[in-house]
Design goal:
Structural class: alpha/beta
Helix content: 40-55%
Strand content: 15-25%
Shape: globular
Number of strands: 8
CATH superfamily: Alpha/Beta hydrolase fold, catalytic domain
Strand order of the largest sheet: 1-2-4-3-5-6-7-8
Radius of gyration: 17 Å
Number of helices: 11
CATH topology: Rossmann fold
Mean pLDDT: 96
Low-confidence stretches: none
Length: about 270
């Protein structure tokens, strides 16, 4: 279980593959296992892939103090230094996409390319989880029934079309239970998300950017992707029809192909 000291804590990471460095930044409650082997394995065929657990989550050291999205971006930059990665292709999804936005703004020289998946920039016009889904998830978590909470998370994160195959739940359940996420840290992550707003600064990002968003995202609605694309007119916006929040889980091969194509098109730093 490799870990590195980073800004007063320790972050767990995994590194595999070969090629140019590619850094994966997970979302709220997500860990290094949340990428799934089909998606991460496809990326490892073309890149030196680093997947890590954000502060306090997964196998990283436990914490109890609040933090911001910008502070997690600073964690990411220092992790890159510790790993002796001068620059990398950066992929951030959901909360990880928020971290990637701040990373691109503060350390543009460290990014070869940027992919923002199913994420949110804050500010006027942005939308967090729809009320109905938020109540479903909160109620399931408050019940104290882990299986009920996992099922609610599954229903909110994946599209109806994907969930039509009941066998698909087994892989999600195994992923979600292999490295449990501490409820206290998830609450701290949620506080950080509430304070996130890069809407007035996204136009400053010059890094070649790919935006990916599913049209039936039940966590961060599709309109967030449209808003980010409008604020970053030079970015490529890839729309995944009838796909939910965890697009890389629903369509691992297609998602990896999009990211590989985008990253390789930028060329080495």
């Amino acid at each position: 279980m490799p870990t590195l000291p980073v800004r007063g804590t320790e972050l767990h990471y995994e590194r595999a593959g070969s090629g140019e460095p590619l850094l994966l930044i997970q979302g709220m409650s997500g860990t290094h296992v949340s990428w799934g082997e089909p998606f991460k394995g496809a990326l490892e065929e073309s890149f030196d892939v680093v997947a890590f657990d954000n502060r306090g989550i997964g196998l990283s050291a436990r914490i109890s103090e609040p933090f911001t999205i910008a502070e997690m971006a600073a964690d990411t930059a220092e992790l890159m230094e510790r790993l002796e990665i001068e620059s990398a292709h950066v992929v951030g999804i959901s909360m990880g996409g928020m971290i990637a936005q701040e990373l691109a703004l503060a350390h543009s020289d460290r990014l070869r390319s940027l992919t923002l998946g199913c994420t949110y920039c804050g500010g006027e016009g942005s939308r967090l989880m729809p009320r109905e889904n938020a109540e479903k998830l909160a109620g399931a978590m408050a019940s104290g029934d882990r299986e009920k909470a996992l099922r609610a998370g599954y229903e909110v994160n994946l599209s109806p079309a994907f969930r039509a195959d009941e066998d698909a739940y087994a892989a999600f359940h195994e992923m979600a239970t292999r490295v449990p996420a501490a409820k206290q840290v998830i609450e701290l992550q949620l506080q950080a998300i509430f304070g996130h707003d890069t809407s007035g600064r996204l136009g400053e990002i010059a890094t070649p950017t790919l935006i990916i968003h599913g049209t039936v995202d039940g966590v961060l609605p599709f309109s967030n992707g449209e808003q980010i694309a409008a604020l970053m007119p030079d970015a490529r916006f890839e729309v995944l029809e009838d796909v939910g929040h965890m697009f890389w889980w629903e369509q691992p091969q297609r998602s990896a192909e999009l990211i590989c194509e985008h990253a390789l098109a930028t060329g080495p730093a």
